[in-house]
Amino acid sequence: MSHAADAVEISIADRASSGLIEALGRLLPQLSSSAPPMTLQALTRILDAPSNLLLIARDPQVNGRIVGTLTLVVFPIPTAIRAWIEDVVVDESARGRGAGEALVRAAVKLAAERGAKTLDLTSRSSRRAAHRLY
User: Fold this and answer.
1) Which domains does the chain have, with CATH numbers?
2) Rounded CA gap, 30 and 127, in Å?
3) pLDDT tens digits, residue range 38-49?
4) CA angle 118, 124, 127 (to 5 degrees)
5) Rounded to an integer, what distance in angstroms lies between the CA atom of residue 20 and that of residue 115?
6) How much of the chain, in percent, has pLDDT values that exceed 90?
């Protein structure tokens, strides 16, 4: 198995684009059958929220195709700065090659850099492969 850093490139989405909307349209149904279709307006709202960071995993061997995403939410509360990991999804065709691990590692690093004292994640019990990653 290749090392996660070699398998994908992780970046933070800084603007809404048709390519990102297409990728989310392909990925989100793999996470949740009830996920609404992504729109330019919805993606812009997500990216513009000051607490949100949308991480993207790209496969450099497939022309930088987006193969996974993770949303990191960092927020202050009276006792500390906290963080949540939400909506982690890796394309079915790219699973097992380190994309999920690379996304989670990047989120842990970014949360720490922003001063988060805790980083939480919840997942449905049926997502067994995801639990092995976490």
Assistant:
1) 4-133 (3.40.630.30)
2) 11
3) 999 999 999 999
4) 110
5) 28
6) 79
